[in-house]
Write the structure tokens for this entry.
Amino acid sequence: MSGVYARRVAVIASAAALAATTGLLGAPAAQAAMPTPVTASTARTYLSQLAVRTEGSSTGYSREMFPHWITQSGACNTREVVLKRDGTNVQQDSACAAVSGSWYSPYDGATWTAASDVDIDHMIPLAEAWRSGASSWSTSQRQSFANDLTRPQLIAVTDNVNQSKSDQDPGEWLPSRTAYRCTYARAWVHVKHYYGLSVDSTEKSALQSVLNGC
């Protein structure tokens, strides 16, 4: 009797799992996103702990000092992984290139259906990182930073918005979509704190202003 009961429980559990899976497959695809940054409260604490220094020199900087996009698995490099992660209904070919899908850019609120219209933004721009302490890192450390999928350092956004941001910090540039500025500031501080990068005084004031309104 106990064996029959055990089998019955197993059948019920399997049916429930199948129903749950079916429900998940039939549900609308959720908008994926970069890893969630620390809370505004934690970001304010982190910001108070960051070294405040005059921004360093760009001497010696080049994007090649931060090797990217590196292979993550199979044929997929970091850019393709983020495109898949941040997009909706993204389909990839055998070379891992995104051939269809849609991408919502939280910086400006635009939605794109061609991967070529989307850039992967480094939350902390590579040149900004260089001037904030990364110039003293090893190439291996810079590579890890430039391809970091664990922290909120990489995000898919409208290409010309990313180009407009360039290597500017929050004292010089913030997303035009004000509803995203709190997340942006939290992410910025999260990454700088994790990597021990400094802030300049104008940058810190801008971040404090945003975080105080979160």
Summary: The chain has a mean pLDDT of 88. The beta strands are 71-73, 76-77, 88-92, 98-105, 110-112, 118-122, 154-158. Helices lie at 2-26, 40-49, 78-86, 126-131, 139-146, 159-165, 181-195, 201-212.
